Amino acid sequence: MATNQDEIPVTLLTGYLGAGKSTLVDYILKADHGYKVAVCMNDFGDTTDIESRALTINDPVTGEQTSAFLTLPNGCLCCSFKDLGIAAVEDMVARQPVDWVIIELTGLADPGPVAKSFWTNEEMGDLELDAVVCVIDGRNVLKQISEPTLQRQIALADLLLLNKTDLITSSSDLTTIESRIRSLNPSAPLRRTERSRADLSSLFRVGAYSGGAQRGIGTLLDSSSTDNHNNQTHEHDHQHDENCSHDHQISHHHKPHYDGITTISISLPPLSPDKFKALNTFLQDTLWEPHGPHGPEILRTKGLVVTTQGEEWIIQGVADLFEVTRAAPAPNSKTGVGKDQEGKLVFIGKGVGPELARACRHALGL
Ligand SMILES: Nc1nc2c(ncn2[C@@H]2O[C@H](COP(=O)(O)OP(=O)(O)OP(=O)(O)O)[C@@H](O)[C@H]2O)c(=O)[nH]1
């Protein structure tokens, strides 16, 4: 499809909690393609600090670590982006020349309103919406597919990446998954990926929006016409879309959000080796053991642990799987971890509440 080479393409990256969006961003930022890429990250559950620490970006000239992030510090891009987001992206692009803008939406965002605001905004300067790319968690998609948010993410995409194929155990599962995805979006290319390693030429200058409406996208982008989940379960009042001033500071309480999903953030002091071990056991007990019909269903776990020895570790969990890896040094930090630096553990899921925070503190003897 023809694209305007003078415009800077904007890719909207969507996909459910833990699908592999940040992994894709990390892959793109490190790949050898020669494009200057700007990334906007938005996150649900106040975890952008953890995300940005999970990535390392080296300046190609100096080799030093750089921060390429413009943090949009609230958890609800879909209602604040229209006014704040585009201006923020324009500002970023004005400060440094870039070839490609990638906006990673939260795992719980409907990409429709953001895509629409980019597509219809006359004052976007050199920016042009290029494509909506949806990363799909191959391991969990069949369990999650009844979620309206995920359905819209898939339905709206111009390119679908079926990720985590290493965790899909049989070819019949793969066929079932692909046909379920196809039932929601029969026309977008569907590619299989492991660790989100997609062919970069299929991601850049897709041109899905050049040349006017296609695939009935106009109707899909209008969330009021197809989206009934906002009206039913979304706790926010989107009537005040234009001046969205309500409280998005969800980090330390457990407000219901999209699809009845709540989040809790537990701050952690520097952990001794014994307490770090206890945290690992707590995560195993919490994520691996069934909680019965009324227990929380944890969809996503993220954490930053600071140890008393001054190490930092990142925790990433999706459903029952989790991994603990050494954190990249903080950007612009030459001194390492400060003595009073705190860690935190964030759970996102259904029925996630203060009991979980209490259980965690108890398990760690805090
Ligand atoms: N086994 C396996 N793990 C993967 C793959 N892709 C990503 N992961 C892991 O899945 C976890 C979540 O990946 P992220 O890239 O953070 O997912 P995300 O979509 O950005 O998650 P949210 O920010 O919650 O929306 C991390 O632990 C990744 O290392 C894959 O293809 N295979």
From TrEMBL:
Point to the regions of Polar residues compositional bias: 221-231
* Keywords from the UniProt entry: Chaperone, GTP-binding, Hydrolase, Nucleotide-binding, Zinc
Q: Which reaction does it catalyse?
A: GTP + H2O = GDP + phosphate + H(+)
Q: What is stated as this protein's family in its record?
A: Belongs to the SIMIBI class G3E GTPase family. ZNG1 subfamily.
Is Ribonucleoprotein among the key words of this record? no
Q: Which CDD domains match?
A: CobW-like
Q: Which Pfam families match?
A: cobW, CobW_C
The protein's name in its UniProt record:
CobW/HypB/UreG, nucleotide-binding domain-domain-containing protein
- Show the segment(s) annotated as Disordered: 217-255
Q: Where does the record place the CobW C-terminal domain?
A: 276-355
Q: Where is the CobW/HypB/UreG nucleotide-binding domain?
A: 9-190
Under the cellular component aspect of Gene Ontology, which terms does the record hold? cytoplasm
Q: Which InterPro entries match?
A: CobW-likC_sf, CobW-like_C, CobW/HypB/UreG_nucleotide-bd, P-loop_NTPase, Zinc-reg_GTPase_activator
